[in-house]
Amino acid sequence: MKYLQTYIFTCIVCFIFYNKIIAQNINQTKNSIHDTTRCNSLNSMIEIEYNDEIWPKYNNELKKIALKNLKTISNTSPLYKTYSKYLAASLNNTGWWENQKGNPNEARKYFEQALKIQEEIDDKNGIAATLNNLGGIYQNKGFIDKAIALYFKSIEVNTSINNMVGLAYSYNSIGTAYQSLGDIKKALDYFIKSLKLHEMTGNKNGIAYALSNIGIIYFGQGDYSKSLEYYSKGLQLFEAIKDKEGIANSLNNISATYDAQGNSEKAIEFGNKSLKTYEETGNKSGVAYILNNMGSTYSKKNETTIALNYFMKSLKIEEEIDDKKGLSFSLNLIGELYFKQKKIESALEYSLKALQISKDIKNPERIKSAANQLTQIYKLKKDYKKSLENYELFIQMRDSINNEQNKKASIKSELKYEYEKKAAADSVKVAEEKKLSNVKLKQEKTQRYFLYSGLGLTVLFGIFMFNRFRVTQKQKNIIEEQKLVVEKQKHIVDEKQKEILDSIHYAKRIQQNLLPTEKYIRRIINTKS
Question: Is residue 74 part of a domain?
Answer without folding.
Answer: no
